[in-house]
UniProtKB/TrEMBL annotation:
Entry-linked PANTHER family: DUF2156 DOMAIN-CONTAINING PROTEIN (PTHR41373), PHOSPHATIDYLGLYCEROL LYSYLTRANSFERASE C-TERMINAL DOMAIN-CONTAINING PROTEIN (PTHR41373:SF1)
Organism (species): Methanofollis tationis
Gene3D superfamilies assigned to the protein according to its UniProt record, in alphabetical order: 3.40.630.30
Membrane-spanning intervals of the chain: none
Protein name as annotated: DUF2156 domain-containing protein
Taxonomic placement: Archaea, Methanobacteriati, Methanobacteriota, Stenosarchaea group, Methanomicrobia
Domain Phosphatidylglycerol lysyltransferase C-terminal, first and last residues per copy: 23-293
Length: 309
């Protein structure tokens, strides 16, 4: 029987193991990225346990455990153990599914088990070519803003190398000062996550770019691969001196990624209205949705009969 004691904290030393696992069982949502787990571990307290040939992931936020998986071969017995654990140890909403195929499989085993979709945490996934080329009338306003930004700020775009990490960290300190990170728990957590990414840039296999104006970094974008087809933008930051730097970071990252990835995942809007409007303005190709099962429903999941498969 799977128990809490079977879980070990996710650490940077687990990266090779997870990269191999996620290569064999590709994921669609940013929250299933190893880089996400590593950078946000201070907040979400990720842990993992082997179960059969798969892996179950636990996250504990504000003392409330949630579970996902197993990631691995379709194993109804392992799923049953995971759901049992979610009922015994989880919070009121303890079980998460991050892709449509897994959702369909779980529903085939438990036809009466309801899931709700959480729009606030659905990732925006765009065609890389759209973000790179900004084609047609839908992107006309964005193209105009970018042209003005380039005229007025005369930016220089550079890849982030090991020699730049200290300067990027100094830029992030300025960004936090401007955004008053210490006054906002959300921004304070994000500051810790992005600084972790800078401190472990090479070990995490990250890539990125910086945009300079008048010799000073004005914006950055940090990214890696979510799977063979999808790149994931983990962090995108800009200072206010040059209006349009966020749009420029978006397009410049897409320009570098479009040759290798069909799609770019730009994460969720976490329910922030202004952020939602900004992300919708770029016309996502699709959303990578999140589905959640409630503890009371999980506890009754077998009452209508289980389909073994």
């Amino acid at each position: 029987m799977l128990t809490i004691d079977d879980f070990s904290p996710v650490t940077l030393d687990d990266r090779d193991f997870f990269l191999d696992l996620l290569r064999r069982y590709p994921q669609q949502h940013s929250d299933m990225s190893f880089t996400t787990m590593a950078c946000w571990n201070h907040y979400a307290n990720y842990a993992w346990a082997r179960l059969g040939e798969g892996v179950v992931i636990m996250s504990v936020i504000d003392g409330e455990p949630t579970f996902r998986g197993p990631i691995g071969p379709r194993d109804p017995a392992a799923l049953e153990e995971t759901l049992d654990l979610a009922v015994r140890e989880g919070c009121p909403s303890p079980y998460y599914v991050f892709d449509e195929e897994t959702l369909a499989w779980v529903r085939s085993l438990y036809p009466g088990l309801p899931f709700r979709s959480d729009r606030d945490f659905a990732d925006y996934v765009y065609l890389s070519s759209d973000l790179d080329e900004l084609p047609g009338k839908h992107y006309l306003t964005i193209r105009r803003h970018l042209n003005r930004f380039r005229r007025e700020c005369n930016p220089i775009v550079e890849e982030i190398g090991p020699e730049d990490l200290e300067e990027v960290s100094e830029f992030l300190a300025k960004w936090c000062e401007w955004r008053h990170c210490e006054e906002s728990p959300v921004l304070a957590r994000e500051k810790e996550a992005v600084l972790y990414a800078m401190e472990h840039f090479a070990a995490l296999g990250l890539s990125g770019l910086m945009i300079r104006a008048e010799g000073t970094i004005r914006g950055i974008s940090i990214y890696d691969a979510l799977n063979d087809d999808v790149a994931l933008i983990h962090f995108e930051k800009g200072l206010p001196e040059c209006d349009g730097v966020y749009r420029a970071a978006n397009q410049e990252a897409a320009h570098r990624l479009a040759a290798d990835y069909i799609y770019i995942n730009r994460e969720s809007d976490v329910g922030v209205p202004g952020l939602r409007e900004a992300k919708l303005r770029y016309h996502p190709h699709h959303m990578a949705k999140v589905y959640i099962a409630q503890k009371e429903d999980l506890a009754k999941r077998n009452e209508g009969g289980q389909i073994n498969g």
